[in-house]
Design a protein that fits this description.
Length: about 210
């Protein structure tokens, strides 16, 4: 298993989108669990991609090629993830907050939630506060997940929480926040219910908040 997972990670890191689906098929044929391909392959390598970028070891074109490769692999993996994993456990509304266009990490969080059996309503990027409020009102999710990667957009998370309070909806939903600059301290400061540093821990945190 380690060998094929490493091949998948190498293909993502070097942006070989044309090879990734064959590698994912090979892993599935070798009975590697879809959730392990996601966690130990895609999520692990994208975290490495983020780190290399911060150290100026790779640059935006390489990061985008890696993201495209990951997405191509995930397209193939998704039906297996949803099928293989547990029963429906709740509904999540998720989005990158106003002003923020990063979505690679958010999309991974979506995948992990879907893999864990949650229904996911992804509002996309640069989502205005009112759209989060509308969706909490109409979709009645148990979890609202907010993502921010760009420091100037972090306070938009607080704006969403304030807007929900003003609309009388704050106690209807558990709010979790995340993204590279977000910390537990920040989450506490803005009145979120939880924080998680990565996509798998996001699901664990959501389950903890829902009492299961
Ligand atoms: C790819 C990228 C882009 C791409 C985005 C493509 C896309 N579709 O997402 C493009 C090129 C468009 C882009 C644009 C910009 N970017 Co940019 N970008 C990045 C980069 C290289 C990687 C981000 C990434 O995808 N990481 C990999 C994923 C897997 O990690 P992640 O997002 O952190 O997600 C994980 C966790 O944080 C967590 N998580 C994420 N969301 C959530 C949500 C919840 C609820 C939870 C619980 C957890 C969680 O789980 C994920 C998986 O484990 C980072 C550098 C870096 N090292 O992070 C810069 C970076 C984030 N960008 C930066 C900047 C400045 C910009 C720009 C302003 C650049 C410019 N001058 O135009 C613009 C516009 C930003 C905007 N308005 O949003 C800065 C931000 C600096 C800061 N302190 O704010 C960074 C840190 C680069 C740098 N070192 O300067 N960027």
């Amino acid at each position: 298993m380690v060998d094929i997972i490493n091949k998948i990670k190498d293909a993502v890191m070097s942006g070989q989108a044309d090879q990734i689906q064959a590698l994912v098929k090979e892993a599935l044929a070798a009975d590697v669990k879809a959730s392990d391909i996601l966690k130990e392959g895609f999520i692990a390598v994208m975290d490495e991609v983020g780190e290399k970028m911060s150290k100026d070891e790779i640059f935006i074109p390489e990061v985008l090629a890696a993201a495209k490769t990951m997405q191509t692999g995930l397209d193939l993996l998704k039906p297996y993830l949803v099928e293989s994993e547990s029963e429906y456990t709740g509904k999540v509304v998720i989005g990158s907050v106003k002003g923020d266009v990063h979505d690679i990490g958010k999309n991974m969080v979506c995948m992990m939630f879907e893999g864990a059996g949650f229904e996911v309503i992804d509002l996309g990027v640069n989502v205005p506060d009112e759209e989060f409020v509308e969706n909490v009102k109409n979709q009645q999710p148990q979890i609202l997940a907010l993502s921010s990667l760009y420091t100037p957009t972090m306070l938009a998370m607080k704006d969403v929480i304030d807007a929900l309070t003003d609309a009388g909806l704050r106690d209807k939903v558990k709010i979790i926040v995340g993204g590279a600059p977000v910390t537990q301290l920040f989450a506490d400061d803005i009145g979120a219910d939880g924080y998680a540093p990565d996509a798998s821990k996001a699901v664990l945190k959501a389950k903890e908040l829902l009492g299961n």
